Amino acid sequence: MNRGDLLIYKKRDNTNRIAIVLPFHHKFKGIQHVLQRSYKKMLSNYPDLKSIFPEPPLISYRRAPNIRDKLVHANHTGKNLKTVDTISNSRSFIHSLMNHSGQVTNTISRRSSFIEGGSANTVGAIYSAECTKHKKLYIGQTIQTLNARFNGHRSDMEHYPERSDLSYHFRNNDCDMKTDLQISVLEKAYGSSEYMKHKEDKWIMRLKTHTPLGLNTKTSEFGFIYKSLFYK
Predict the structure, then answer these.
(1) Radius of gyration of the chain from Cα atoms?
(2) Contact 136, 169 (CB under 8 A)
(3) Is residue 88's pLDDT more than 50?
(4) Angle of CA points 25, 27, 33, to nearest 5°
(5) In 3-state terms, what secondary structure has residue 203?
(6) Is residue 90 very low, low, confident or very high in pLDDT (cuts 50, 70, 90)?
(7) Which among 179, 176, 202, 177 has a CA at the least distance from the CA of 189?
(8) What distance in Å separates the CA atoms of residue 51 and residue 49, rounded to the nearest whole number?
(9) pLDDT at 94 over 50
(10) CA 224, CA 214: separation in Å to the nearest integer?
(11) What count of other Cβ atoms lies within 10 Å of the Cβ of residue 106?
């Protein structure tokens, strides 16, 4: 193209097309054709809609994350964040109870698995909590920090033990969460309640932590799927 033509300012067309913004994915490649066909069919059935939607919707894609997004951040408060981590670790009663071996075992069901691992400050996780006094394992999930979740378990043990199987066991079996507990981050995860429950059920079935082989008394509707895969 001629360089002079490229330097001439070109006024953009102010289109009134409705924009549908999607995250980029290869499966969306043919969606424009689907919309075109649906648009024509809609106008053939309802011609008056032409005055409202004179043109078919415009498909646009969000830019996918790149390496720059992962490496460069606008917020440079690493020092403050380190201070917060130090404070939360010092206040967390579970800091010294974390399992860093990379593996967890249900000694009753004789099921063992490698785990992702993590600290007391892990945000979003499927975790196991073992009563070391009775050698029984409990599987749970949280989108909070792990130490916040176990502060909740400890509070429930004192006031509302029926809220979770773990709190109920420690309240009714003379167990102490400060000395009779070992916690493992099985898998780091963060999502909707349905997604987290799906992950939790998978680990319950994988390690066989259903009573009497563990402390879990129930699963969601996903449980029967994993039961057929792991509970043999």
Answers:
(1) 27
(2) yes
(3) no
(4) 110
(5) helix
(6) very low
(7) 202
(8) 5
(9) yes
(10) 17
(11) 21
Percent of residues, the chain, with pLDDT higher than 90 = 48
> 196: exposed, middle or buried (C-beta count within 10 Å: 0-12, 13-18, 19+)?
buried
Q: What is the mean pLDDT of residues 47-64?
A: 84
- Asked if CATH classification 3.40.1440.10 holds for the domain at 82-230, the reply, yes or no, is yes
Grade residue 93 by pLDDT with cuts at 50, 70 and 90. Answer: confident
| Dihedral angle sign, alpha carbons of residues 37, 42, 45, 51 | negative
First to last CA, the chain: 69
| 77 has pLDDT over 50 | no
Only one residue has tokens 């785990």, namely 115
CB-CB contact of 167 with 153 (8 Å): yes
Give the pLDDT band of residue 81 (cuts 50, 70, 90). Answer: very low
Q: Tokens 């979770």 label which residue?
A: 164
Domain boundaries, the chain: 15-71, 82-230
Instruction: Tell me the C-alpha distance between 182 and 130, whole Å.
Output: 5
> Residue 89 is which amino acid?
N
pLDDT at position 13, please? 63
Give the up-direction half-sphere exposure of residue 101: CA atoms within 13 A in the CB hemisphere.
11
For residues 222 and 202, give the distance between their C-alpha atoms in angstroms, rounded to a whole number: 8
- 187 is written with which tokens? 């898998």
**pLDDT, mean of residues 168-183:** 94
